[in-house]
């Protein structure tokens, strides 16, 4: 893996080079093994938290981990195109618009002992800006090359805090064209519901049940690219003990193995449906 500037990364994408890189400020990684009409993203996978923010942060390391999406990068690491965040959403949230990306409160609790200086905020927001420059170049290149592209936007959520039964998988589709994409969305929901988990974990899949797909990543791509479908795909955190901060690697591995075949198969179906 190379350490590259955003300008270098964009240049490689536009030249359709094969490469794997970490951004020069270590804020995200990108891997392109082959140019295909689909990409995977794990924008909340990151846990890094700038050291100069530590003492000022009221939330504990565990509280940050609890709201992040650990292991979502590993679940899709075998796919040819993958972009993933390295930084915690508590520094800046890649799934929120720039004006809301640096939190003052997080999940009902004050985040900072002292308000962040403009300089501190700018440091974080620059990373947000750079990430979206690369996302833009990536989707632009894929759309131009293939005519249509699908993005699997991987997230996870804390299912134990809900006071009702919630699905193992949730697809958020309220900000995409359901009249146009309804059939392929349903196909993806059906495929996810068929995954067999170890440890007697149930497998259910619903659309807009726990989350509706209101993230900035989906909205940004959908607004700027008319022939790219973003599938906000959330797995309940059945792959860990969200209260004890223990990861279940056998469950993560199962998800990865299942998605190795399910994502390319679905992406091919979407591409054949919409490439013209």
Automatic annotation (TrEMBL):
Domain of life: Bacteria
Gene3D superfamilies assigned to the protein according to its UniProt record, in alphabetical order: Zn-dependent exopeptidases
Entry-linked InterPro entries: N-FG_amidohydro
Protein name: N-formylglutamate amidohydrolase
Organism: Hyunsoonleella flava
């Amino acid at each position: 893996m190379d350490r590259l500037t955003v300008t270098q990364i964009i240049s490689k994408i536009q030249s359709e080079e094969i490469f794997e890189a970490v951004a020069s400020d270590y804020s995200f990684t990108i891997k392109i093994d082959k140019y295909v009409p689909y990409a995977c993203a794990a924008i909340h996978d990151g846990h890094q938290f700038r050291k100069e923010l530590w003492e000022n942060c009221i939330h504990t390391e565990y509280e940050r981990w609890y709201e992040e999406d650990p292991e979502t990068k590993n679940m899709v690491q075998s796919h040819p195109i993958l972009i993933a965040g390295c930084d915690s959403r508590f520094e800046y949230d890649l799934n929120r618009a720039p004006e809301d990306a640096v939190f003052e409160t997080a999940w009902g609790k004050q985040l900072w002992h002292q308000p962040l200086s403009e300089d501190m905020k700018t440091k974080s927001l620059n990373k947000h800006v750079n990430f979206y420059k690369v996302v833009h170049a990536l989707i632009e290149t894929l759309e131009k090359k293939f005519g249509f592209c699908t993005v699997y936007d991987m997230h996870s959520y804390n299912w134990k805090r809900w006071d009702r039964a919630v699905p193992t998988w949730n697809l958020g589709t309220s900000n995409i064209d359901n009249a146009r994409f309804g059939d392929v969305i349903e196909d993806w929901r059906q495929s996810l519901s068929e995954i067999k988990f170890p440890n007697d974990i149930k497998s259910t899949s619903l659309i807009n049940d726990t989350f509706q797909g209101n993230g900035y990543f989906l909205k940004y791509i959908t607004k700027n690219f008319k022939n790219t479908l973003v599938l906000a795909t959330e797995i309940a955190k059945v792959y860990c003990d969200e209260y004890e901060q223990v990861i279940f690697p056998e469950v993560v591995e199962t998800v990865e193995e299942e998605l190795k075949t399910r994502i390319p198969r679905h992406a091919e179906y979407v591409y054949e449906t919409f490439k013209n």
